[in-house]
Recover the amino acids of this structure.
């Protein structure tokens, strides 16, 4: 899938905490092995119990729109043909308390609403500077 926002936009810089999220092609969330709490964004310490025994686990890749915004003004010339588009905050199934933000792909903005179910879609892009292949999570209405 080509990048929704085009190739001129910044890519995430990979580090040990975000690499599973951006490279596996499955929705990976961080969980605490001590208390089983899920957390996002990932960190070195559990937000719930302060354990450092953390791991990434695949979750189903589905969720519910908790909030969204419709972008009408193209803040960059490359977005001129993309507006309007919706960006949603999604509560992730299988990772209680975790929300992930992403573009809502393939939907009319009038169809995007709080409470709607979504499925993850991955935009695959190779970082021209590092050669790393990223799989950026986005959302589509279920």
């Amino acid at each position: 899938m080509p990048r929704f926002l085009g190739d001129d936009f910044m890519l995430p810089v990979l580090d040990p905490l975000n690499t599973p999220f951006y490279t596996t092609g499955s929705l990976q969330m961080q969980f605490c092995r001590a208390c089983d709490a899920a957390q996002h964004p990932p960190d070195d310490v559990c937000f719930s119990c302060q354990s450092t025994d953390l791991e990434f686990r695949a979750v189903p890749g589905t969720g519910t729109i908790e909030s969204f915004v419709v972008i009408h003004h193209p803040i960059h010339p490359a977005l001129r043909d993309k507006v309007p588009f919706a960006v949603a905050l999604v509560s992730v199934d299988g990772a209680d308390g975790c929300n992930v933000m992403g573009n809502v792909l393939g939907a009319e903005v009038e169809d995007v609403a709080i409470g709607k179910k979504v499925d993850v879609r991955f935009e695959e892009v190779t970082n021209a500077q590092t050669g790393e292949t990223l799989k950026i999570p986005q959302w589509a209405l279920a």
In short: Residues 21 and 69 are 23 Å apart (CA to CA). Strands lie at 28-32, 38-39, 54-58, 62-71, 85-92, 99-104, 117-126, 133-141. DSSP finds one helix and eight strands in the chain.
